[in-house]
Amino acid sequence: MRELSGTTQEFFRKDDDRWESKTEELENAKVVESLYRAIERSDVAAFKNTLDESVQLDIVGPNEIPFSGSASGREAVVEFAIQNFSQLQEQNAQIVEVVAQGNFVVVFGQETGKFKQSGSGPSDPYEIEWIQRFKISNGHVMSIKQIFVASMKAD
Predict the structure, then answer these.
(1) How far from the centroid of its chain's Cα atoms is residue 141's Cα?
(2) Which has the closest alpha carbon to 150: 130, 124, 123?
(3) What is the pLDDT along the chain (155 residues), one digit of tens a residue?
(4) Residue environment code for 109-140, b if the CB has 16+ CB neighbours within 10 A, otherwise e
(5) Which residues, 6 or more positions from 59, have their beta carbon under 8 angstroms from its beta carbon?
(6) Are strands 140-151 and 3-5 parallel, antiparallel or unpaired?
């Protein structure tokens, strides 16, 4: 089961006395929140509905973690995400900070879990810290850029 602690809106408001005047940024943070909650529920249709038809996804990280790659277009991004999540179990992500300006929402997070193993061997734990930058337009995600650093063992 995927689990996400913290919300984009909660962190968007944190330490900003003027958050109520930033309506565009708040609405964009809500779009990102919808995307995260769809992933958390494994709701592929809801995830797909947050994405623009021409969405671009780029994930950059160390080669030993099989998340890196790119996809263009709604269908390709959905398939790429399904492939990535199918390699994981006991996934636990935590939002650390959210920054929003104009059409961009940047989320800082950390995550632990295990890689699924084929066969009967033990699963390898992982621990990553990530930054995800979302570009939002007309209530849909236009682009996602994720950069992460990782260690193979979560001790």
Answers:
(1) 12
(2) 130
(3) 344 455 655 655 566 666 666 788 889 999 999 999 999 899 999 999 999 999 999 999 887 777 889 999 999 999 999 998 888 888 889 999 999 899 999 999 999 888 887 655 567 888 889 999 999 999 999 999 999 997 645 44
(4) bebebbeeeeeeeeeeebebebbbebbbeeeb
(5) 67, 68, 69, 70, 84, 145, 146, 147, 148
(6) unpaired
Task: Please choose, from the candidates 74, 66, 70, the residue with its C-alpha nearest in 3D space to the C-alpha of residue 35.
Answer: 74
Cβ contact 117:30 at 8 Å = no
| Ramachandran bin of 139, using left for φ above 0, alpha for ψ from -120 to 50, beta for the remaining angles | left
DSSP secondary structure string for all residues of 5-29: ES-HHHHHHTT-TTGGG-HHHHHHH
Give phi and psi for 117, each to the nearest 5: -105, 145
Q: Which amino acid is at 15?
A: D
Identity (one letter) of the amino acid at 136? Answer: I
